[in-house]
Write a structure and sequence with these properties.
alpha+beta, single chain, 14% helix, two-stranded antiparallel sheet, 83 residues
Amino acid sequence: MPAVRSVIFHTRQFKAGNSQAVRLPAQFAYPPETELTVTRDGGKVIIEPAAETLDSFVNFLFSVSDKYDGQRIEADLPERDWS
């Protein structure tokens, strides 16, 4: 298995209102409007995209249920010869 190369850069935190903030270089940036989760693991602070939750799946089901009319679409398949 090839080694995974990590990119490391150094920065400092700064105050943004009553919060601490850090600047991330463009190569570390997430797309705009990406929901992020921040967790602490010992002395590390980990920033990662938020995982999809069961709530988001349920919301998806409700959004498509409005478009479902209750009719099942039957596929027109040729008969198979099982002999």
